[in-house]
Amino acid sequence: MSGAGAAERDHVDGSGIRVAIVAGQWHETIAGGLLAGAQREVERLGATAQVVPVPGSFELPVVAKAALEAGFDAVVALGVIIRGGTPHFDYVSSAATSGLTTVALESGKPVGFGVLTLDDEQQGLDRAGLPGSKEDKGAEAAHAAIATAVVLRSLRQLA
Q1: Neighbouring residues of 109: CB distance < 8 A, sequence distance ≥ 6
Q2: What pLDDT does 1 receive?
Q3: Residue 116: which of 99, 140, 132 has the closest Cα?
Q4: Element (H, E) at 121
Q5: d(Cα 15, Cα 121) in Å, to the nearest integer?
Q6: C-beta neighbour count of 80 within 10 angstroms
Q7: Average pLDDT of the segment spanning 111-126
Q8: pTM, whole model, 2 decimals?
Q9: Residues 122, 9, 51, 157: what is their CA dihedral angle, to the nearest 10 degrees?
Q10: Cβ neighbours, 10 Å, residue 55
């Protein structure tokens, strides 16, 4: 399972951190699990979040960029891309990944990467944080975004 070696999601003080959860709508059950996990983690860490639905994973980078420009401290990008019989999977996966990386680097703000790139639906169900899932990738992405925002806030205070 891909979660082997994952760090523990320790508690960080996310108070004052404003998060946009930018959530693709494809594959409703898996996407819903990712979103619920992200929301639980935001609440657990004391941050605040606003959910921003987008049609699919291809749209995540442009909306993530707009959210950060609007003043959010971090973005949690959630999406589900399942391999099919055409190269479409490769193009969407690459565009979402490189686009979100570019947004983070250009904005200087964290983007938690909760985009699942899957060979089949079962892999998504195993990672979506649903009852019976082995992993909770939505929570992991939210934790990464908030923890990084806290680190960046600390660094700014040192300067």
Answers
A1: 68, 72, 73, 74, 75, 149, 152
A2: 45
A3: 140
A4: helix 121-127
A5: 35
A6: 28
A7: 95
A8: 0.92
A9: -150
A10: 11
* Residue 102 parent element (H or E): helix 88-107
18-24 and 48-54: which strand pairing?
Answer: parallel
In this structure, what token pair is assigned to residue 48?
Answer: 């605040």
Parallel/antiparallel/unpaired status of strands 48-54 and 111-118: unpaired
CB-CB contact of 74 with 148 (8 Å): yes
CA distance 30 to 36: 10
Under DSSP, the state recorded for 99 is H
C-alpha triplet 118, 107, 80: angle, nearest 5°? 15
Q: Which of 59, 55, 51 is nearest to 27 (CA)?
A: 55
For residues 56 and 31, the answer to whether their CB atoms sit within 8 Å is no
DSSP secondary structure letter of residue 58: G
Could you read off the pLDDT of 56-101 as tens digits, one per residue?
999 999 999 999 999 999 999 999 999 988 888 889 999 999 999 9
27 belongs to the catalytic site: no
pLDDT in tens, 18-65: 999 999 999 999 999 999 999 999 999 999 999 999 999 999 999 999
